[in-house]
Amino acid sequence: MADLKKTLGPVQFFSLGFGSIVGVGWIVYMGLWFNQAGPVGTMLAFLIGGLLMALIGLCYAELGSMYPVAGGEAVYGYRAFGQLASFAVGWAMVLMMTAVVPYVSISLAWLLDVLVPGIGGPVLYRWRGQPIQALGLAITLAWTMWLGVLNYRGIQGAARFQDWLTYGKVLISVLFIGAAVFGGSMANLQPMFQHGADGSVVGGMLAVLATTPWFFGGFNMIPQMFEERAEGTSSRILGLVVVFSILAAAAYYAIAALSVGAVAPWQQIVKADLPAVAAFRTAFASGWMARVILVVGLCGVVTVGNAASIGATRLLFALGRARMLPPGFTELHPVYGSPVKAIWFVIGFGLLGAFLGKGGIAPIVNVGSAAACLAYFFSSLAVWRLRAVEAGHARPYRLPFAVVISPVAALGSLFLFWTALRQHWVDAGGRLPLEWVVIMVWAVLGGVLWSRARAARAVLAPGEQRKIVLGEL
Predict the structure, then answer these.
(1) Beta carbons of 110 and 139 less than 8 angstroms apart
(2) How confident is the model at residue 273, as a pLDDT?
(3) Rounded to an integer, what distance in angstroms lies between the CA atom of residue 383 and that of residue 81?
(4) Residue 238 belongs to a domain
(5) Residue % of the chain over a pLDDT of 90
(6) Is 321 part of a structural domain of the chain?
(7) Which of these, 62, 262, 64, lies nearest to 182 by C-alpha position?
(8) How far apart are CA 304 and CA 289, in angstroms?
(9) pLDDT (tens digit, 9 = 90+) per residue, 211-223?
(10) Is residue 2 part of a domain?
(11) Tens of pLDDT along 132-166?
């Protein structure tokens, strides 16, 4: 059985988790959130979403400590519900994490175009009303390839790179938060909530809440890489790192929403290209603070893209090792120990997504949110199921009140899944949502790959697949 190298400690796991949750999204999406829910509505939606995700994270903490092997959700689904559930959950998470790659690459080109006006170059074509520019597309494609090269050269270098950027991003963020505290005004937050046509604030908050599974997605990268933990690294500690990453991200998003809303009248800045940047430029009549925000965003692009590509390739590796996907996905580089074909599979889809441009960001987020919720549901329910069928299994981290938290987390996942599908339909205006088409195409691709792996599954000895999935070989 192919094994991954074991070099990661708690600090690297936190930087991979938190760094993949908090990226460029709050800069790119803040204007849309404010238009939907207002600044305080946005803050509350993320705090509610963060609490729901923390419950889900507690379930992951127990499951990850039970099965510290590559595969994450696919492993938990296998043991609790069987092979087909394992593949469905794993394939959904591959979609979510693979979608992150073009999302961050497109965002990078967008930020650079704001930081250096005109860098995008001439317009090649338009999609969904947004221009795709020649140099901007070249930057997107080049960055996607760089993510592949970075992960091709092995986990240790990629994790060290993640450490630098994550903590650098946090330190730089202190500047704009401090500026908002000392230079902002509560009057700029008015109106604190955006009211819908019916006068209610609930619809707008639900629209923001529908995106939170995507914007909190990343904590599950940690259990994906438990197999690569260094000797002596406690599974219990890593379980707690999962939950801490979510809570830290919830606090960051809430503070960011209040900071942007406080420094300038939000109903004016939402008309700008990047409202979070425009807010600080307006408030301080200077470009230097706006550049600080852009630097934070650039750091976020790096950390989120790096962590997502790592997580997606490790999950493909695990599914290939269990012969749910063709075994070619288990091919490791002889020197770096990285899953080569899995990396280029993820990067290949990232390169295709790069051609969507800014108009593709919203559909990418919407698809990723729905896919993530499906995985969260099965993983949360798996805790309850495994307490019954594997009561004697070692649990270095044991979830307190699991009989309550596990089903509540599962119901919370279903609620978030419903909000995601609802928002797809609302955004499509009654037509067939593009997001649903993408999900169906991805399901068909999964079915084709599952069928191609049938011969490889057939030659496994009885019980061998179970031992592979659960790390018992």
Answers:
(1) no
(2) 74
(3) 11
(4) yes
(5) 21
(6) yes
(7) 262
(8) 23
(9) 888 888 778 777 7
(10) no
(11) 999 989 999 998 998 888 777 655 555 565 556 66
Number of domains in the chain: 1
332 occurs within a structural domain: yes
Residue 356 is part of which domain span?
Answer: 10-469
pLDDT, position 84: 92
As separate numbers, helices (DSSP H) first and strands (DSSP E) second, the chain gives 19, 2
Class of residue 168 by CB neighbours under 10 A (exposed 0-12, middle 13-18, buried 19+): middle
Of all helices (H) and strands (E), which one includes residue 298?
A: helix 287-321
Residue 236 has pLDDT above 80, yes or no: no
User: Is the torsion defined by CA of 70, 354, 106, 117 positive or negative?
Assistant: positive
Provide the CATH number for the domain around residue 137.
1.20.1740.10
Q: Where are the alpha helices (H) located in 184-211, listed in sequence order?
A: 202-209
Inter-CA distances, 13 with 155, 186, 224, 240, Å:
12, 37, 10, 11
- d(CA 468, CA 449) in angstroms, rounded, equals 19
CA distance 368 to 90: 13
Question: In this predicted structure, what is the pLDDT of residue 227?
Answer: 65
CA angle 221, 412, 166 (to 5 degrees): 30
> What is d(CA 409, CA 405) in angstroms, rounded to the nearest whole number?
6
Percent of the chain with pLDDT over 70: 84
Burial of 219 (C-beta count, 10 Å sphere; 0-12/13-18/19+): buried
Task: Of 229-238, 326-335, 339-348, give the lowest mean pLDDT range.
Answer: 229-238
Predicted confidence at residue 1, as pLDDT, reads: 46
